[in-house]
């Protein structure tokens, strides 16, 4: 499901030729994958739900990245859900099943003023004369970029140390250590990376929040000669 969500005609699939599938091929392939899985496991009702609510031609463009001509940078559903989560747990935490007029009042008096401040931050209309502070997503982007710029050996060593320092009773500790050991022994793959289009055929790029992967980051650093922007 996650792969179906993130596939896009501009992103090559992970094969030797770097094949680009068009939007129709991606949709047909996703439907075939999901139908085959449900058929093999006898999930008749699950397939009926998935087809009617997710994979039919009417619903597919509402959530699949491939339905857009350009690669979307933002998942709208996640933003809306995040907004309502804040309203529920911050502004309406004392109310169970609040009336519509109360919700409207809270949105006008509490939510909109915060949204206006955020908009002014984005437009650079606050803290005039001062350097703009990085937003949370910008900090995450910078951290990901810096991490992907480092050699694989250092990244794996630090990851292994974090898990080895964790308690032996930590859930998933042994599995994570086994994955790290397997990753260290794995032969590096060859992927189709294009910094002009900013696409890569590696699995990490496909599901990346910021459309980043170590191959793109390192190619970009090499092209910029590691010069800070």
List the defining traits of the structure above.
mainly alpha; 10 helices; globular; zinc-finger; Znf_SWIM; SWIM-type domain-containing protein; metal-binding
Biggest sheet, strands in spatial order? 1-2
Number of domains: 3
- End-to-end separation in angstroms reads 36 Å
The proportion of residues forming helix, as a percent range, comes to 55-70%
**Which residues sit in consecutive blocks of at least 5 with pLDDT less than 50?**
none
Helix and strand element order = HHHHHHHHEEHH
Largest sheet: 2 strands, antiparallel
Pfam families: SWIM
Keywords: Metal-binding, Zinc, Zinc-finger
InterPro entries: Znf_SWIM
Protein name: SWIM-type domain-containing protein
Briefly, what is this?
By secondary structure, the protein is mainly α. It has helices at 2-6, 23-40, 44-55, 76-91, 100-123, 136-149, 152-165, 173-185, 203-206, 214-224; strands at residues 193-194, 199-200. The chain has a two-stranded antiparallel ribbon with strand order 1-2.
